[in-house]
Design goal:
With 296 residues, this protein is an alpha+beta fold. It is built from 7 helices and 16 strands. It folds into 2 domains: 130 residues, no CATH class; 143 residues. A hairpin with a 4-residue loop joins strand 2 and strand 3. Helix 2 runs parallel beside helix 4. The radius of gyration is 21 Å and the shape is globular.
Length: 296
């Protein structure tokens, strides 16, 4: 089993990942050095932008639904390549996107003192947002050892997409629904609480016999078969859905984060839409962004 990263490892590896991008490294490292230790950040986060396209934001602050993009005109191709290699997608609808340009209107790079000042202004913005959250009781500090634990959500009583629930293992995600085992390696698990509800861990990209996709607003998931075995599975699922019309599907998208670690992100509660589905592709409609934890 691979050794779990410490918080120091995470920070150092995040900076190492962008070490070849000079301006990005300067701005991001300045931010990391100046923000409080309890403010979470993610470098190189893939998002579905409200405008309808995918983009890599250079640093993302999950507690604030805030992204920073650093405009460096000379590595546009690199950004495109990074997007193609990424599969952890945050739905950025309703998020704020802030930009810092490293060059002026004439195309020349800005003086570093100007970039430093604009970066510090962004840091002031972060601090003000945090202060508001602390004052109204909505700010949840970044606790490295607690961040991927089910305990936070069990204590809260529910999972909400807006709170960005993320887990490292299926077993830890399932503990929110009464799972008591040590591990689970299946793609789905039926909740043994008397309901017919299931927890599903799809890869929302092409993988094996499936090509799963989520819409940019997060409201619909398509589970599409790539071969005959997939089509047989779809036929079985549609028959089962007709027998269990009240079944809910609680979805944790499987992916890898920017450092290549396994990631399970809660994206909502869905219901299979039989009328929209075909023999090649099942359609799931989102029916909720908040799901209560269940104690068995």
């Amino acid at each position: 089993m691979a050794k779990e990263l410490s918080k120091a490892d995470y920070i150092l590896r995040s900076l190492q990942k962008i070490s070849h991008k000079r301006w990005e490294l300067y701005i991001v490292s300045r931010i990391i050095h100046k923000i409080d230790n309890d403010v979470e950040f993610v470098c190189q986060q893939l998002v579905y932008r409200p405008e309808g396209y995918r983009a890599l934001t250079d640093i993302y602050f999950p507690q604030f639904n805030l992204h920073l993009e650093i405009d460096e005109k000379h590595h546009t191709n690199q950004i495109s390549e990074d997007i193609e290699r990424s599969d952890d997608i945050v739905l950025a609808t309703g998020h704020e996107i802030h930009r810092i340009k490293t060059y002026g209107d004439e195309g020349m790079f800005k003086d570093i003192s100007i970039v430093a000042e604009e970066t510090d202004n962004f840091i002031d913005k972060l601090n003000k947002i945090k202060e508001i959250g602390v004052d109204n009781g909505t700010f949840v500090p970044w606790d490295w050892d607690f961040a991927y634990s089910s305990r936070r959500w069990i204590n809260q009583g529910y999972l909400d997409v807006a709170d960005n629930p993320v887990f490292r293992t299926q077993a830890e995600a399932l503990r929110c629904f009464g799972f008591k085992g040590k591990a689970l390696q299946r793609g789905a698990w039926g909740i043994p609480d008397g309901s017919t509800d299931v927890v599903w861990f799809p890869r929302l990209f092409r993988h094996g016999m499936w090509h799963n996709k989520i819409t940019k607003d997060g409201e619909r998931i398509y589970e599409c078969a790539e071969n005959l075995d997939g089509k047989k599975s779809i036929e079985t699922q549609l028959i089962d859905a007709e027998r269990n019309p009240e079944r809910k599907t609680i979805v944790f998208a499987k992916a890898k984060d920017s450092l290549g670690r396994n990631l399970l992100r809660f994206v909502g509660t869905f219901k299979l839409n039989i009328s929209r589905s075909t023999e090649d592709c099942i359609v799931f409609d989102r029916i909720g962004t908040r799901e209560k934890v269940r104690f068995l």
